[in-house]
Amino acid sequence: MSLKMPLPDQRVLARRDEIITTLRRIVPGEGVIDQPHELRPFESDGLTAYRQPPMVVVLPETVEQVATILAYCHKNNVKVVPRGSGTSLSGGALPLADAVLLGMGKFNRVLEVDYEDRLAVVQPGVTNLAITKAVEGEGFYYAPDPSSQIACSIGGNVAENSGGVHCLKYGLTTNNVLGVEFVTMEGEILRIGGKALDAPGLDLLGIIVGSEGLLGVVTEVTVRILPKPETARALLIGFPTVESAGQCVADTIAAGIIPAGMEMMDRPAIHAAEAFVKVGYPLDVEALLIVELDGPGAECDHLIGEVEAIARKNGAVTLRASRDEAERLAFWAGRKAAFPAVGRLSPDYYCMDGTIPRGKLPRVLQRMNELSAHYGLGVANVFHAGDGNLHPLILYDANKPGELERAEDFGADILRLCVEVGGVLTGEHGVGVEKRDLMPDMFSEGDLRQQQRLKCAFDPELLLNPGKVFPSLHRCAELGRMHVHRGQLPFPELPRF
């Protein structure tokens, strides 16, 4: 592993047997995993370049068990790494050698569906796609749809503020979550937000969504569900250059058209996806756009004509509109399968995640080609073109000495480029460990300290998911703050000024 993580606390490791015994009392039966060969499946998340077996895995089934585990770990100074389905692509669920890995996979029930208020209450282990499956019989669906939606959990989506192909029109996770049940590191069970459209007071929900497991553990999520559009049609548009496809994206948005989804793939990704799913993608183009319009039938027909005209003006060489629902889903099948499809091109790939202004797309793609030549590594591009969220897939072979390190350097240069052109380090995968050491490229020291003060307000002992997000985490006392718990300051006998 080329990545540096916090050194294990040997005092905690010396108490491993005692910790395991206590966890077994809290979660009886098969809820505690401690044998080395059984820990292997938990040693990494979707960012498989980095691996570290956890000290122990615990799989609670009730909120009370979660609260008891966290309270015990807080009292005994034991670190905790929350984990959903383990599909994180930023190393957000990477275990620590001296930490309890808190797996939320058994929280997998849809608790309530309220069609009148258009919401569902679900446990965090419910998969993204399972929410839609639970409500589609009544004509509803859950809008955010990451490519991993068949496997990723809604709790992980909340942690990373996940997006998907339909986030351009319908928003990311943060725009579709109304409330959460949340357990602090001290074992307090809180409810933040709820079924109402908006909650009074500070926007703590906006802080929790995207907090990457640094502030607490989500044990229940209230999400917004939407009625299925009357009509949805997709356009498959091929371009002779990536630049012309990028300009088509910019012109479409500039015309006031907000598609439900707007995705782009370059030639390597197109060929990989077509070989994998065989849906009829054109193979003689340099870039492919998938543009979906939804709404009333007459509106869709009108907008399809508008987008077709914009595409032809930008030199489109192929253009197909879906004739029925099966063909629309086929168009998306290749895009949804693009990540595993690219796995056929190389033994390993490194999936990046950065966001740029749409108008900078041609410049960024040109520079990525130059970086590809510089590092001697191929790259396939799959991204949410409508909102500028890039997903370059850097191709490498981990068995060849130095290639992983070159892939890391290549990826870091791409992310620096995103910031340089006015974008940000991440769009939906989170910071995790992957982008942690690049945070100073985007934030000043003052910015980072202020973010860490927020971390200290929720987790003053820095026990939740340490080693993630912040390149160097200061002790809370060094940041000039003091934790207030249940209205009580520590050391109350000392005078205050």
From TrEMBL:
Keywords: FAD, Flavoprotein, Oxidoreductase. GO terms for molecular function: FAD binding; oxidoreductase activity. Residues 50-228 form the FAD-binding PCMH-type domain. Its cofactor is FAD. InterPro entries: FAD-bd_oxidored_4_C (IPR004113), FAD-bd_PCMH (IPR016166), FAD-bd_PCMH-like_sf (IPR036318), FAD-bd_PCMH_sub2 (IPR016169), FAD-linked_Oxase-like_C (IPR016164), FAD-linked_OxidoTrans_Type4 (IPR051914), Oxid_FAD_bind_N (IPR006094), Vanillyl_alc_oxidase_C-sub2 (IPR016171). This is Glycolate oxidase subunit GlcD. It comes from Acidocella aminolytica 101 = DSM 11237.
